[in-house]
Design a protein that fits this description.
CATH topology of the largest domain: Rossmann fold
Radius of gyration: 18 Å
Low-confidence stretches: none
Number of helices: 15
CATH architecture of the largest domain: 3-Layer(aba) Sandwich
Length: 316
């Protein structure tokens, strides 16, 4: 597959506009004071399906020709991409089949079921997810829409950056969480053309620091089955996302679990926003590296708000 381009991000924005929310950008003077910087939170936790993933999934589904779409779509995902693909497929009136790890949060499983997708559960490792997805695709003829390593998915995720730049064009840097790298690479694609001086950065849990290790290694490394509260960031960079991240992302920060949880709770308490732990890793990166962000204008993408309220990470 060819790498997507900035023009693909613009095309995605037009394609998905009728089907998504333009999410707000919010600020917090209290958190700014703690960070010593001006922070601008792009609230994708308020997006349809509660996550930015609806952008890439919708772009991929509506970019299919009618013959391909009629066969349905299939993916593997721990939750947010699964729900996004299920909703996008329902909007287009085609079947959706989803492979989810048996450890996926119940709130995300219920969402996928609610959007009408057929779920197959598997062991919580990338190899099991990919094998089950490939078997379903071969058996049913469904089109595989991967959760991140796909040109239309990457381009769709980059549309959040278009909106952020449109509202705040003078940011010094933008930081997003990084798992498979779809959002991070899409954001980098957008800012390469829109604002080349704006640094694009990623953040990941130290317990699943596959992006950091991939960049050191010179190629994507396998995620395995890491244990982290950031359930949406347990994957590794793909072939496409790695190439964009390597080229266009200036830094990737690896963050301790405790710092992620503290940042998640901080947003809940100070901004009254429900965010997932996977979102909080980006704010934690800013708070733990004050010298890197002091007096800077920083965009932070809050990627999702699908939280199991019976299993909050700060409750023992």
């Amino acid at each position: 597959m060819q790498l997507p381009t900035f023009e693909d991000v613009l095309a995605a924005a037009e394609r998905i506009r009728p089907h998504i929310h333009r999410t707000p950008v919010m600020t917090s003077s209290a958190i700014d004071e703690m960070a010593g910087a001006s922070l601008f939170f792009k609230c994708e936790n308020l997006q349809k399906v509660g996550a930015f993933k609806i952008r890439g999934a919708t772009n991929a589904v509506f970019a299919l020709d009618d013959e391909s779409a009629a066969r349905g779509v299939v993916t593997h995902s721990s939750g947010n991409h699964a729900a996004a693909l299920a909703l996008a497929a329902r909007k287009r009136g085609i079947p959706a089949r989803v492979v989810m790890p048996r450890t996926a949060p119940s709130v995300k499983v219920k969402a996928v079921e609610g959007y009408g997708a057929e779920i197959t559960f598997c062991e919580p490792v990338s190899e099991a997810r990919e094998a089950a997805c490939a078997e379903i695709a071969e058996r049913t003829g469904s089109v595989v829409i991967p959760p991140f390593d796909h040109p239309h998915v990457i381009a769709g995720q980059g549309t959040a950056a278009l909106e952020l730049h449109d509202e705040y064009p003078d940011l010094d840097c933008v930081i997003t969480p990084c798992g498979g790298g779809g959002l991070l690479s899409g954001t980098a694609l957008a800012y390469e053309t829109l604002a080349p001086a704006t640094k694009v950065m990623g953040a990941e849990p130290l317990a699943a620091n596959t992006a950091t290790r991939s960049l050191t290694n010179g190629a994507p490394v396998a995620a395995g089955n890491p244990t982290t509260v950031c359930d949406g960031l347990r994957t590794s960079l793909g072939q496409l996302t790695y190439r964009i991240v390597e080229r266009a992302v200036s830094d990737v920060f690896a963050i301790d679990e405790g710092d992620v949880i503290c940042s998640m709770r901080l947003v809940w308490e100070r901004m009254k926003l429900i965010i997932e732990a996977s979102c909080a890793v980006a704010l934690a990166a800013v708070l733990k590296n004050p010298d890197r962000f002091a007096d800077r204008r920083v965009g932070i993408v809050l990627t999702g708000g699908n939280v199991d309220l019976d299993r909050l990470p700060w409750v023992v």
